Amino acid sequence: MSTVGKQNPTQYCMESVRKYDYENYLCTLLLPKNLRAAAFAIRAFNVEIAVIQDQTSEIAISGMRYNFWNDTLKKIYNNTPPEAPVPLELTRVLRNHKLSKHYFQRLLDARWKKWQTVSFNDISAIEQYSEDTVSPVNYLLLQTRGIQNVHIDHVASHLGKAQGIVTTIRSVPYHARRRTMILPKNLLIDHGVSSESVFRGESSKELCDVIFALASRANQHLKKARSLKNNFKENVADIFLPAVNVDRYLTKLQRVDFNIYSPKLHRRENMLPFHLLLAKMISKW
Prior knowledge:
This protein is mainly alpha-helical and 285 residues long. The protein folds into 2 domains: 7-117, no CATH class; 119-285, Farnesyl Diphosphate Synthase.
């Protein structure tokens, strides 16, 4: 964990999200100015706990880091944060925004539980993981606006699940290089796909069918989120801009016939900032 020194905590959070969560960084830049710092602090916290799994393969060391954040979260809400950028920034943000500790704790606990279990048995397990590790960020972003609406929460939940499933799909090649299987066991068995073939980066019709099943479920959640827009009057298009990222990735995935190893999927989309800005301007996500 980096100490603050001369570094501005607000800038640190912003740069952390830019480095590790670029697409959501672009979305956050399009939030109203008075909400931006809070949103970057929320996303930076999520980055900090997400990268723990990538920093070590030793469960004892990762456990120490999760315990650090568990203690730090308590200190943040007691207004006694350690001298580190993200805790200091979150403490500052909490003076102006009423954010539920429950959602931060949920993010942390779900990451730790996943670290211990590693694999997913089925798609529903990925959906639950997404509900615990993505949707809380959406709920917290809504809280920065002071929005309390069960219909909007349903949108946040479905969008979170779509985001989480897409993140799982996108991370398959990365995890395969580390010989970690994150695709649902039941889908691999049903389609006759071996873990070794995934680890070797071998594309096949059977693997593409597994990816198609996941992508279809993500698309179902995205469509459901969009279908609920007529249930409320609040304009939350800026908060739900990540839906544009999900939609565009699923479209690209379809164009390469669900070949997760296609180089076309791993190129940064230069026009994405334009598409996000347009979506915000016309309030269409």
